[in-house]
């Protein structure tokens, strides 16, 4: 299956996020390994001044960048990174949707939780949740996102089959059934892809 990759924004991180990336790489060895696809990555962070927008809460774009780190953490702590480096696979995302529920203000501690929900032959559907504690100690979901992610083999010009990437870490598993919200997300992406294809066809015929 030929495909054109969509690069992860990790390749274009602004300088102030490189410090978080370096922290992640340096501390990975001290955190327990993750057994995919069942176990989730949970990363602790805090809202710093460079995360804010003009409304003095976390910039919407920053959520996506931090979620990139969650996916990287899954890859590192599952051991999948070895195969990624060996085969020179490229982590990519081609679709995502997010719902913002609560703002995150300066110096607020929060966590990024990253989970694999289900998968197809070549794509993983992952959920990211931004979690923080309320004044009563209860958990607050500040934002929740769904992304469709994969590994791209530049040499083969194709996405790596999920069965193969799981096999690289000794896992054989069957995908759970998509939940209603995941099915709606995938259906929306299919509709947008079909609309884009129709627009290209109309343009070529003009």
From TrEMBL:
Transmembrane segments: none annotated. This is Acyl-CoA thioesterase FadM. It comes from Bosea thiooxidans.
